[in-house]
Amino acid sequence: MIAAAVFASGSGSNAEAIVQASALPCAVCLLVCDKPEAPVIQKAAGWNVEVFVCDPKTFPDKQAYEQAILTKLQDMQIEWIFLAGYMRLIGSTLLDAFANRIINIHPSLLPAFTGKDAIGQALAAGVKVSGVTIHFVDSGMDTGTIIAQEAVPVQPGDTHHTLHQRMQQIEHRLYPETIHYILTREGKE
């Protein structure tokens, strides 16, 4: 069984969807969180996964921070990383060690609306369609190779909350499906 880690910084709804997906060809063994007060940490108590809280403020630089995470990942023989609301750019320490084995989810149809608050960006731009993208992680901000996308119509009167809720319904299905596809394909190559 493939060993995987989920990285999250916030509430953890996508992390939870991955952990609870029944047909994945991997075992999520580790949650990595960069925020000691993040709600995902309490959620993870019921997931039967180890939680590794690694606060970047306690390290002298990004490389030292990522090296601490890498050591933990290597100790646990983690093979894949799934970012689920992890609000940090991944640096070369992790990118080099996990080349083409880090996947992210983003609440827009990339390349539109990269970075933080993509939903707010979409609403401010007045687009009629936004969506969800799952992509490989590279050194840029939401610039990696796109694996899957699904459109979400922006309805008249949508607020950040209502659009986010509809996007999450898609995310919670699409992310596990895409992980399954990638890991199954990887095993056949």
From TrEMBL:
A cellular component annotation (GO) from this entry: cytosol
GO BP terms, alphabetized: 'de novo' IMP biosynthetic process
Binding, (6R)-10-formyltetrahydrofolate: K62, M87, R88, L89, I90, N104
GO MF annotations, alphabetized: phosphoribosylglycinamide formyltransferase activity
Residues holding N(1)-(5-phospho-beta-D-ribosyl)glycinamide: G12, S13, N14
Record: active site: H106
Enzyme class: transferase
EC number(s) reported in the record: 2.1.2.2
Catalytic activity: N(1)-(5-phospho-beta-D-ribosyl)glycinamide + (6R)-10-formyltetrahydrofolate = N(2)-formyl-N(1)-(5-phospho-beta-D-ribosyl)glycinamide + (6S)-5,6,7,8-tetrahydrofolate + H(+)
Keywords tagged on the record: Purine biosynthesis, Transferase
UniProt superkingdom: Bacteria
Gene3D superfamilies: Formyl transferase, N-terminal domain
Pfam families: Formyl_trans_N
CDD domains in the record: FMT_core_GART
Site (Raises pKa of active site His): D142
InterPro entries: Formyl_transf_N, Formyl_transf_N_sf, GART
UniProt pathway: Purine metabolism; IMP biosynthesis via de novo pathway; N(2)-formyl-N(1)-(5-phospho-D-ribosyl)glycinamide from N(1)-(5-phospho-D-ribosyl)glycinamide (10-formyl THF route): step 1/1
Domain Formyl transferase N-terminal: 5-179
Keyword set includes Transferase: yes
Function: Catalyzes the transfer of a formyl group from 10-formyltetrahydrofolate to 5-phospho-ribosyl-glycinamide (GAR), producing 5-phospho-ribosyl-N-formylglycinamide (FGAR) and tetrahydrofolate.
Similarity section: Belongs to the GART family.
Protein name: Phosphoribosylglycinamide formyltransferase
Gene responsible for this protein: purN
